[in-house]
Give the backbone structure.
Amino acid sequence: SIQVRENYQRLYLLGLAVVFFGIVLWVRLRLLGLPLERDEGEYAYMAQQLLQGILPYTETQSMKFPGVYFVYAGVLQIFGESPSSIHFSLIFVNLTTAFLLFFLGKKLLNPSSGIFAAACFSVLTLSPGLQGVWANSEHFVLLPAIAGILLLWVAQDQPAHFLFSGFLLGCSLLIKQHAVFFCLFGALYLIFRIIDKSQPFKNPIKYVLLFTIGGMAPLIITALIYGASGKFSEFWFCTVQYASEYVSLTALGEGFENFKYNFAQIVESNFPILWLSLVGMASVTWIKDRKREYIFLLGFFVCSFLAITPGLYFRPHYFLLWMPAISLLAAAGFDGLVHRFPFSGIKNLTQVGILILALGIPFLMQKETFFKLSPIQVTRSVYGLNPFSESLEVARYIREHSGKNSKLAVLGSEPQIYFFSHRRAATRHIYMYPLMEPHVYARQMQAELIREVEKSGPEFVMVANLAGSWVSSRPDISPMLKDWAQGYLNDEYEKKGVVDIISNDETIYKWGEEAMGYHPQSRYHLLIYKKRI
């Protein structure tokens, strides 16, 4: 019978998808020991503080909403405080998001498309072009966002569905501001359902109100917590005032170049899935009975694209927010290509062939990263000579040569060193980027860092002499910070460590007496200073 044949088709696809999921899982397990990069270091350090009872923004400054720090605090509490533990938690988050995409694809199209969408998402989000093997906040945004959107699609006349859908989307926004566009999509789709009237609601105004209350609840609760603690002004400055300046720094032309460069890296390795997503868009012209589903898919695609645009930076990991929509459209393309085949045998063969090619080619294109390179080599291939693996050794030295209550200042943007060393920052500014950008708060922030460091007198100061830790050397930026650092360190500190990053394969470490007379060979190096007794 037709039903039996369809069940066999799904079994073939499911079996193949399980193989690809198994490969993805194996790659993620193989790369568990990847060194933390900067964003991971920031989240882990602020989560570490949170577990000590210190609210984000009170002793550290960051423009991200606080949800990601609460998520990381849970990860550290459950899995432990190591890079492997953090990346292990990502496996659960990523697979759960893929599972939710399966249900969404199944509801929108059919079970086979759901399987394909989930597999595409799992493969795409593994890609080095998206920095997908690191636990960036976008992974944690997607889990509640996709759950909220799925719940909104299946919601009928159950008030709790609309309330909880809004709440889940609000939680995704609390993790990162970019998720506001997922919330916008949810609101627009809910309005579309009310206007469409193909599935009329008994009380649409009530459901809109419940959805809105649910969506606002996480932010309102957060604002109340900061208001009650007397720290609302710090929260508001970091996440709204400075964040507003940050997203207005990039010109449109520069943003377009950012998009072209970073998206090209993704297309190069994952082009079969991306081509299928274009086929999915076009398939609306020959599949006539899915108007509502295609409106949903295209609306989700547009809003997901908008989620990667704030600031026009188009950083590689931002593109993770676009991958669920692209995966669902690729599933629509997958379904559309075999839609008109009259014989089930040809359909089966075509589906199997498309799945193997679409998911197999990305693995073939990225085989070096996935199957051969060590975690350190993978980090070098993606991030170059940034000192992520070296941070562990620097933190170990600081930890072994200072007391638990000692403070540390990192003059650079390497917050992972605070996390690994278990030492409190001597300043709220754990990144130098905001201090070097051309915005109205830059000089104020530099003066604040100088004041805080001089007041606390940290036992250790680490200086990162590499462009990636500062980014800007523009002539319009005040040299105040650099001029101060040279004089301050010469007067009160002595050099105790040099980390000289010579190449991808060679780093020279000098400590104690050896460090004092050593002159770095590379312009990528770290200098560690200890306060004179």
Q: What stands out?
A: Residues 252-282 form the longest helix (31 residues).
